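Section 3.1: Structural characterization of target chains.
Under the original work plan, the team committed to producing a structural model for every single-chain target entering the pipeline before any wet-lab resources were allocated. The record below documents one such target. The sequence was received from the expression subgroup and is listed exactly as submitted; it comprises 213 residues.
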Amino acid sequence: MKKTIFSYVAISMLALLITSSVQKTKHVLIIGDSISIGYTPFIKDALSPDDIIVEHNPGNGGSTKRGVESIEKWLDNKEWDVIVFNFGLHDLVHKDSLNKYDVNGIVSITPEEYEKNLNFIVGKLKETTATIFFATTTTVPEGASGRKVESPAIYNEIATKVMNKNKINIIDLYTASLEIHPKNSKPKNVHYTPNGYEELSKYIVDAIRPALK
């Protein structure tokens, strides 16, 4: 009888441990362009001790046009706990008739198209059970190829309107980037040094960690 009780207790404890282990694992999806590709490894490093799995959409998320076309594939019918997404730098870039970056060319995605596309993407994200965060578009330095300094603020204003309407959490990477970028980038380049990406990642980790408890 004692052996039976012991076996029952042992099996129950093992089942509890397995269940706790399954429940403990959280899944984070990051959607975005090369900036997000740059800070994702640092987010992984920061959250991996808590048994949190962080994934990035395959490749570069590009503009909202690509987002509209790919969002369902990126979600992949998985149960995400947190989704962090951004679109902007590839929407506001200007290109010439040969599709090369040229600040005097045509903007890739107009502000009106950007708003429409964001609404579509947000609609798809809200079909999940994830807590959703939008990271605002980071700064464009003077002289950056195909991009205007004033454009991120314009597109971020549109994005903020869409997120507020849909009650989506906003991570203000734009304001953070104004301080981080000048010290952690090459001239006329929207990208960052590893230290710059690490600094950006801290803002995201701080924002999403409470949603992963």
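The two ends are 41 Å apart (CA to CA).
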